[in-house]
Fold each of these.
Amino acid sequence: MKAKRILSILCAAAMLFAFASCGESTATDTPDAAPISSPADFEGRKISVQTATTASDSLDEMIAAGATIDVYPYEKVTQCFDDLKLGRVDAVYVDSVVSAYYIKDSADFVRTWLSDVPEPMGICLAKGSEDLAAAIEAALDALNFSGQMNQIAVDNFGDDFTADLRTPTEAPAIPTEFKTMKDGVLTVGMEVGYPPMEYTTDDGAEYIGFDVDVAKALAELLGLEVEFVNTSWDGIFAGLEKGQYDCIISAVSITPERQEKYILTEPYVANQLCIVTAA
Amino acid sequence: MSIIRTEKVNKYYGSLHVLRDIDFSVEQGEVICIIGPSGAGKSTLLRALNGLEDIHDGKIFIDDSLFLHREKGRTVSVVDTTTYKNLLLEMGMVFQSFNLFPHKTVLENLMLAPINVKNISKAEAEAKARDLLAKVGLSEKADAYPGKLSGGQQQRVAIARALAMEPRVMLFDEPTSALDPELVGEVLAVMKDLARSGMTMLVVTHEMGFAREAANRVIFMCDGQITEQGPPKQLFESPQNERTRQFLSSIL
Amino acid sequence: MRESLEQIIGWLPELLKASGITLELTATSVCAALVLSVFLALGKIARVHRDTGRPVIDFFGRALTGTIRAVSSAYVFFFRGTPLLMQLFFIYYTLPSLVPAFTIRSRFFAAFLAFTLNVAAYLAEIIRAAIQSIPKGQLEASHALGLSYGQTMRMIVIPQAYRRMIPPVCNEFVMVLKDTSLVSIIALTDLTFKTKMIASNKASAMVYIPAMIIYLIMTAFFTVVFNRLEKRLAKKD
């Protein structure tokens, strides 16, 4: 009898606790608050962000510096935009290359802020692939010179995030002395599922996106077939070290740590942080 | 006036006809033993009386008022809920497997129904329960849980539990069949005491000694029918029916 | 080695905070599910116990209990037959898209709801099995003593079934504790999500060590509590 009473009291306490914590979460709801037009406006608002991205790191730093931000961290960036559409969050803090994809075809979202510090991205190779790296570097220049890169960017982003990164003045000569894992094949590692950089068609049958187009164009210039290896982000660098692919073309930001451990090409596309809110 | 009366009661288990046109009645103060081979429908008849088994058709009267009337597996009429419960409580039931409530003490087993069904005060129910336990010789076991009692003790508690509701007739469904032989006597002794005190009893049993000694009527059932009935002396010593003779010769 | 130890200690406050969410979600949803599951279990075994002899009333009585049984069974079938992950997604994304009024703003509440609905289906089966494991003789004795169906359930069946339920319910509780790691998909920072975030941000797989230890401590704690409870109740028999 006593045990029963204790159990029911515990139950009641637990329920109260549950509703209290639900209330806490909805209390910060302020639909008529000021529009968010810069990261300074994040204070006290709900911001969704993809985990393990520059935007997420940046939010962490802001919180560490004393800001109060209700962060909704998702593993998939599509979830961030779903939340924005459903009105669960006030804004999405995201890479500009990604936001371009969502804004392009949608009247629901609007970009309210774009960072003026570009974050360049490069193609990543394992140490020891210097020859291949040089060939890729030259091929990237060639794509820029011919205007093909610009076309790929506009097709995928609706905006040219590759402008001004590479300014070759003449068509470069592409080295032919390099080795790939498999003869005649460029094997590319990427985490598919990050539109518009690398994702699949609706039926999942085919890989598409900016990086996919770049990889295909590169391989063509190098006289190679292209093969993609879909790997989760967690293990993507480990896979490169184990020699599962020749290079990573998967929106890899150029950071000093990565430059130290791997070979990174000069930037081929630059990303900027941006804020997207509901229109 | 009969306490229980049945009219053309029939019951089937699938295609098996277990009760065939049973007509019988129990009068005030009678001690009736129902005997017969297993599968004869003795227990089914007893359990049909207080609604533990659904009859297919027939009528059951309690205190001469229609308790239940069914035709072709459908209820034609039944008394209202309050009357149903009151009439049901005229019958106390003792089961072969005791069916005491294992999570309640002996005393609580005896007090549960009087308090919750008859709305008797707790003190009154306890006094009554202790009195009944004394009658079945188990006063010292009041606070024990049934699991700690022997089979014979459990059955005596079960009898006391049924008596606590002050029924006018007691139904015993093979009360000693699940007991070790050496424990049968103590239960039969309690039942004999009860019979002597004037309680109306309906007992399904294989204990011919008890039937001979305590009953004033013995009913012999076979293949779902009452084939013979009469005072024990007559039925045991000069059975008229062939089946009765066969049965008696096989067990005696 | 010493470095990793210091690292691990540095992560502990964040991990412990995240385990708070894990615990809170488990405890609240299992408690709410227990309440819901009793109704589901009784719904699954609902039937007409005695005809009134009036055809219309008997017909509706049967129709009503039949409907209750069907609805309860369908509920249990649905929530046990589909993955919890999808149920969570359904509540969090699909439902708001279908009916905007059902947009759940609170991540915790969405997770609480999904887990409660799901766990209730499993607990309902546990409770139903426990109730049906009570020997028929108990029901017969209580009928013969004039106890109503409600009284029989409350005083005879449930108190006995309750003891038989404790080990499987404890099992379910521990399962739920671990299953709450699914809520990371709706941005609720539970222990698993926090661990994964630290692992990818700080690029250290060491964080899985303290995280698993915290899970073990939590499951061990509840296993001991439930065992004690079971022993205490068993003493009576």
Note: Chain A has nine helices and 13 strands.
Amino acid sequence: MLALYLRDLRLGIRAGGGALVGILFFLAVVAVIPFGVGPDLNLLARIGPAILWIGALLAGLLGLDRLFQADRDDGALDLMVLNRDRQMLALVVFVKCLAHWTASILPLVVAAPLLGLFMNMSTTGIGATTLTLLFGTPAIAFIGATGAAVAISLPRGGLLVSVLVLPLMIPVLIFGVSASYAAVADPDPFLPPFLLMMALTLFFAVIGPVAAATALRWATD
Amino acid sequence: MRLVAEDLAGERGGETVFSGIGFTLEVGEALVVTGPNGIGKSTLLRTVAGLLPLAAGRLALEGGGDKWSDIASACHYLGHQNAMKTALTVTENLAFWRDFLGEAHLPLADALDMVGLADIGHLPFGYLSTGQRRRIAIARLLVAYRPVWLLDEPTAGLDRASEAQFAELMAAHCEDGGMIVAATHLPLALEKAQQLRMGGA
């Protein structure tokens, strides 16, 4: 399993540079918001966490459709399905999600504080948003895996995957953003929405790989 | 250990591709599947591997014990694709499959040597020619051990010398107690190779 993680990580970093594309997209989304909204610094600070979350969410969806398609195209998926007695398929999916998260989504989390400055956010706000992104974004990979597995045989499945996955991401987005707000707006408690978001991530970490593995098992036609 | 197939039928997209196929393979035996294009050789191999559902018939690996309990876990499948990543080096690719598949067999260097490509382990897989890629895919069969080899046109793209080399590898595998089901036009240097001719007469 470690071998699979390292392989996917190498591929993510070496081939095509998915991480860089994601960061550039994230940057583009966040950077145009101040131009659209106008120079109202208070407003920017207020919508900052939401914009960062939406930007990270959309950037995280990029490249998700290739999660299994690349392995299907070169025949590696067949071998993974055949080897399911030794390496459980759901676990294979889980590891692939982790590798995808590390290579493509973690860089977004790292870039988030910098982009938070663009939005005139306070230090606490930036810290809270980054923290919620760190623990909330794995859910993108896990839910996205299900979408990617279902749409695996479609040559242009990218948009379909995004449309399939976005509705499921909304609860994570809601709790992630409300936890980030709660860190700055004083009376609201930070911990309850944060814990709920963590619970969602854990929930999807279990459901997502199992569902994706089921879809992959019958996608070898 | 015995690989038994009785009265197999396979279908793709609801249409029956072949039916009434049966064979029995004992340890050390090989089966060569021949037939015109489109007759269902690849479908048969994928069905035997368990990648496609069985439309009818019975398929079993008998006497494999706990270790080789079913065909999927006891087989190497070499399809039309090589299952290698072009961005990784040859050694990285093979090391991944050895670790992922388990049952490590030959060391990487030896496996590369067996396919005659001992000195290209450091090159990215994408730099290789079609024939070289195929030979690396064949080396994958050697780095992890599986008793049953399911080979779909294994020699596509190979030159004469590599074909002969691969025929030797297949013979050696059968002598070691392996089994081979191959869709190939290459004559196998095996006394016990059975022939299965699909379609036509």
Note: Chain B touches chain A at residues 12, 46, 49-52, 69-70, 72-73, 75, 77, 79-88, 92, 95-97, 99-102 (CB under 8 Å).
